[in-house]
Write a structure and sequence with these properties.
The structure is a homodimer.
Chain A: H1 3-20, E1 29-37, E2 41-43, H2 45-53, E3 60-71, E4 78-88, E5 95-105, E6 111-120
Parallel strand pairs in A: 1-6
Antiparallel strand pairs in A: 1-2, 3-4, 4-5, 5-6
Subcellular location (chains A, B): Cytoplasm; Nucleus
InterPro entries (chains A, B): NTF2 (IPR045875), NTF2-like_dom_sf (IPR032710), NTF2_dom (IPR002075), Nuclear_transport_factor_2_euk (IPR018222)
Organism (chains A, B): Vanilla planifolia (Vanilla)
């Protein structure tokens, strides 16, 4: 499978789900998944879902600026590196962010997120 | 080995080498290594070294703001996610950047860079 096509489809799905049904992101993680969000690390689908759904903002919209991807080895896994901005409801200025995902193929011919690292880019 | 210690040591070594002896970065890559630098992808130690040493600036200094890391699987590989700023000689303003590395253990108990993705964060 073309890593660029995987990356684009994943990014489109991930941020649309984040912006419309954040709890639905739980299906993308498994129990060995890790999330680093602005530093602190969380592991496992329950803890990651709890973290994502308890962030101190509700409505938001991600705008994606760049998507880079590379195969992370010979087994079909893909690294995805995203930059963009995050508009929070009621805030005048969007926040720039960078985020990376490590996508692992599943037996169902899909992918799950093993690694997820998010950082705001402070100006 | 502690992934955080690996990440800190790698980041310190990588950017010090970049800023003082950029051609010396070649020892960190192998022939299956990939570099995405502001979009375009390069593969292999020769092509990556050529890319890094032909960037349109000579003297520079990286300042590191954040280092995140996670194990990328059960084999000792480590993902490193860096944010910081890049000061070019003669330029008034530093450029913000984000960069990720996928470090793979070598038989010599060291690591090489399999994946390297660099992006400037435009304000």
């Amino acid at each position: 499978m073309d890593p660029d096509a995987v990356a684009r489809a994943f990014v489109e799905h991930y941020y649309r789900t984040f912006d419309t049904n954040r709890a639905g992101l739980s299906t993308l993680y498994q129990d060995n998944s890790m999330l680093s969000f602005e530093g602190p690390k969380t592991q496992g689908v329950a803890a990651i879902t709890a973290k994502l759904t308890s962030l101190p903002f509700q409505q938001c919209h991600h705008n994606i600026s760049t998507i880079d991807c590379q195969p992370s080895g010979p087994t079909g896994s893909v690294l995805v590196f995203v930059s963009g901005s995050l508009q929070l409801a009621g805030e005048q200025h969007a926040l720039k962010f960078s985020q990376m995902f490590h996508l692992i193929p599943t037996p169902q011919a899909s992918f799950y997120v093993l690694n997820d690292i998010f950082r705001l880019n402070y100006a």
